[in-house]
Write a structure and sequence with these properties.
Layout (H helix, E strand, L loop, with lengths): L1 E5 L2 E6 L15 E5 L8 E2 L2 E2 L10 E6 L19
Antiparallel strand pairs: 1-2, 1-3, 3-6, 4-5
Length: 83
C-alpha cells in the first residue's frame, strides 16, 4: 500500500497494481509511506527518482522537501563515482 501526504493532506492512499499511477503536488513537503519500497517508482518535478529501498521493505515518513528533493533524483550526485 502507498500513502502520500502533500503539505499535511492525504492525497494518495491505497493499493496500486504494477504500472498504476497517481499524482500529488506539494509546496512544502511530501510525506511518503510504502509497504514495498523497491516496487514504488516515482518522479519529482518530472524527473525520475531513485528507489527508496528494496523490494518488500516497509518505509514510513519519507519526507521530501524543496531543499532535499534533488537527493532523491536518479543520476550522478556529487561525491559519488559515476557508472
Amino acid at each position: 500500500s502507498i500513502q502520500v501526504r502533500s503539505d499535511g493532506d492525504l492525497q494518495v492512499d491505497g493499493l496500486f497494481p504494477a504500472g498504476a499511477t497517481a499524482r500529488a503536488h506539494a509546496d512544502k513537503e511530501l510525506l511518503i509511506q510504502t509497504g514495498n519500497a523497491g516496487g514504488f517508482t516515482f518522479r519529482l518535478n518530472g524527473k525520475p527518482a531513485k528507489a527508496l529501498g528494496r523490494t518488500g521493505q516497509f518505509l514510513t515518513n519519507v519526507k521530501i522537501t524543496p531543499e532535499n528533493y534533488k537527493d532523491f533524483l536518479e543520476g550522478p550526485s556529487s561525491g559519488q563515482p559515476g557508472g
